[in-house]
Write a structure and sequence with these properties.
By secondary structure, the chain is mainly alpha-helical. It has one domain: Up-down Bundle (Sodium/glucose cotransporter). Helices cover 74% and strands 0% of the residues. The protein contains 19 helices and no strands. Helix 7 packs across helix 8 and helix 8 packs across helix 14. It is globular, with a radius of gyration of 23 Å. The relative contact order is 0.18.
């Protein structure tokens, strides 16, 4: 399946990489303190914040794996779209419930709010969970990008290292301003690339649009509504609206990656407009990517595009790009994939460095010159980048066949729901004790772990390990969209109960 990029395509990709690197480096001289390096001097308008939010969450996973969910010959369709309904609802709740917490004062990290409410111990636990989640989830995103690069003559290992190091370079030097402006450019490239690919899919089909519609309809590919109330199904209406809303509140209200963008905004109003409209833009993106997946399915069924046996659904779009698109267009689409990956990775590296410096390093090394903290932030940016490269390499060597988008969202839902519970506790008029908050966090973690582990340990795996597992292991008990709701509600409930029982006036 390997192919080599033509000279024209290679020139396009090289020009993109060089342009992004140089564009990011031009902001290096502006990074004189943490305010400029991490929050862009807090003077960014809503439109750039909006685009950065969407570009950051539209990673290579969205670009490649979401089309694969609709392409999936074994029942793939538009039901993934139901998540976007909950995403919009969740962002509206974030805009009015949580944003006011962040826009007061001169915060750099979302978790500084938790320090005020519960003390430094709770703050560091929440920040640590963020750092763990970002490293694992974005390492998986980097891995998916490399899966495509193998089709244009690069080994997966070299692709992981190359994309990771290039992103580290311009993020290291340019800080948040570089991230925001490169996000804008990368967003335009990847949306234009996806739209261009969709046009070429339709053109390849004998009969064009009519064939696309008829094949998609016959295979029930355009079905977007599934009202069946099953907790083990990820893509139904209830998981989408309820679970998706909780997941979106967690990912966009309790995750430093997104909160850092709000902190860059000129005002609370600018931040609110950006986060609410981002849900609408993401809905439109999902429609485009899912429609593209249906087109890939139709192309295979029509015999104009062959998918070798054993090809993962995540890889089909990438294979289509290098096998069926003309010279020049291939280069644009490969650049679009790199744009999708680099926009998310650069945001992740800057936010991870921010959390580590703000929540851990600066309190331990106070009263140092601002230049010292900027240098430390850059070094930590590089360190987190190398960690994500390591995760991506581990994901490749593990050889898991599970959808990358499911793995990424599962990891995110597992941890961000717990932190959301802490922020919801912080909104209460009556502040719970720090030890009660920690107890809630532990209980939330245990609850989510209890419903996740059975899906990880199968009977064949148990046989290899030489251990016995109950019959229900190897099955999904609760699908990942419910993880954030389960984690946050358990955290809040147990924290409130523990706080009540541990106070002197409590009666048992």
């Amino acid at each position: 399946m390997d192919a080599q990029l033509s000279t024209v395509d290679l020139a396009i990709v090289a020009a993109y990489i060089l342009a992004m690197t140089l564009f990011g480096l031009r902001f290096a001289r502006q990074q004189k303190d943490l305010k400029s390096y991490f929050v862009g001097d807090r003077n960014v308008g809503w439109f750039l914040v909006l685009i950065s939010i969407v570009a950051t969450e539209t990673s290579a996973v969205t670009f490649l794996s979401v089309p694969g969910t609709a392409y999936n010959p074994a029942g793939g369709n538009f039901t993934f779209l139901q998540l976007s309904f909950g995403y919009i609802l969740g962002r509206c709740l974030v805009a009015w419930l949580l944003l006011p917490l962040y826009m007061r004062g001169e915060l750099f990290s979302a978790y500084q709010v938790l320090e005020v409410k519960f003390g430094r111990g709770v703050q560091r636990v929440a920040s640590g969970l963020f750092l763990l989640t970002r490293t694992v989830a974005d390492g998986l995103r980097l891995y998916l990008t490399a899966l495509v690069m193998q089709y244009v003559g690069f080994s997966i290992e070299w692709a992981i290292v190359a994309v990771g190091l290039i992103t580290i370079l311009y993020t290291y030097m340019g800080g948040m301003k570089a991230v925001l402006w490169t996000d804008l450019i990368q967003f335009v490239i990847k949306i234009a690339g996806a739209a261009l690919a969709f046009v070429f899919v339709i053109r390849l089909l004998p009969g064009g649009w009519d064939t696309y519609v008829s094949m998609g309809t016959e295979a029930d590919k355009f079905r977007w509504l599934d009202a069946d109330l099953r907790l083990d199904v990820a893509y139904n209406l209830w998981a989408g609206v309820i679970g998706g809303a909780a997941f979106s509140m967690a990912s966009h209200g309790a995750d430093q990656l997104m909160v850092q963008r709000y902190l860059c905004a000129k005002s609370l109003t600018h931040a609110r407009v950006a986060v609410v409209l981002s849900g609408v833009v993401v809905f439109a993106q999902f429609v485009l990517f899912l429609a593209l997946g249906v087109g890939l399915y139709a192309a295979v069924q029509a015999g104009v595009f062959a998918v070798p046996a054993g090809t993962r659904n995540d890889e089909v779009f990438g294979l289509f790009i290098v096998k069926k698109l003309p010279v020049g267009v291939v280069g644009i689409l490969v650049a679009a994939i790199l744009a999708a990956a680099m926009s998310t990775l650069s945001s992740s590296l800057n936010s991870s460095a921010n959390a580590l410096v703000t929540d851990f390093y600066r309190p331990l090394r106070p009263n140092r010159p601002e230049g010292h903290y900027v240098l430390a932030s850059r070094l930590m940016t590089a360190g987190w980048g190398l960690a994500q490269i390591g995760v991506a390499l581990a994901a490749h060597w593990s050889g898991s066949g599970r959808s990358v988008v499911d793995r990424v969202l599962t990891v995110a839902g597992f941890t961000t729901g717990l932190v959301l519970g802490l922020f919801l506790l912080g909104k209460l008029r009556h502040t719970v004790q720090p030890r009660a908050a920690i107890a809630g966090l532990v209980a939330g973690f245990t609850a989510v772990l209890a419903v996740w582990v059975p899906s990880l340990v199968s009977e064949p795996m148990a046989a290899v390990l030489g251990v016995w597992v109950p019959p229900f292991f190897g099955t999904t008990i609760v699908a990942w969209p419910w993880f954030a709701l389960l984690g946050s509600s358990t955290t809040v409930g147990v924290a409130l109960l523990t706080d009540r029982l541990s106070r002197p006036h409590a009666r048992v």
